[in-house]
Design goal:
Layout: H1 27-42, E1 47-49, E2 59-64, E3 76-100, E4 103-121, E5 127-133, H2 134-147, E6 162-164
Antiparallel strand pairs: 1-2, 2-3, 3-4, 4-5, 4-6
Amino acid sequence: MAIRPILRLGNPLLRQRSMEVDAVDTPDIRDLIADMFDTMEAADGAGLAAIQIGVPLRVMIFGIEANARYPEVEPIPITVLVNPKSNVLDDTKIGGWEGCLSVPGMRGYVERFSRIRYSGIDQYGNLVEREVDGFHARVFQHEFDHLEGVLYPDLIKDPLKFGFEEELSLNS
């Protein structure tokens, strides 16, 4: 379909809560999802929320097999979620370095819930439900935050653990 421009930190649209989708299997939603995949692939991302391309709908995609930005992570199935929901299964939080296509070239150390259950509808109207942990849980929470108008820099507790990738020591 098309590679769309990705909104960057500072754009006020990224701070909006996205709206629920009323009908899933429509030409507009199918085109949106296709554009999201094209855009995510072109940017070498692990996930993308519709709001990141200027569409304030509760649609997110993610998935990773092999990715130069995340060379050491476990694979995550290619997933489309419309109107996603989540529940925390374990209050334990695990810290990790995150990046974002809307905050290019930067990383920050963010604590996320270690184990969650999420659900939503895929692009065909089928229910998707999973219990996940590790990087999979991190990616879901990161994309879900976009739908709420939250970006990962908002969650960084230590300002010394936020900066440009080439300037940071990402091992701590």
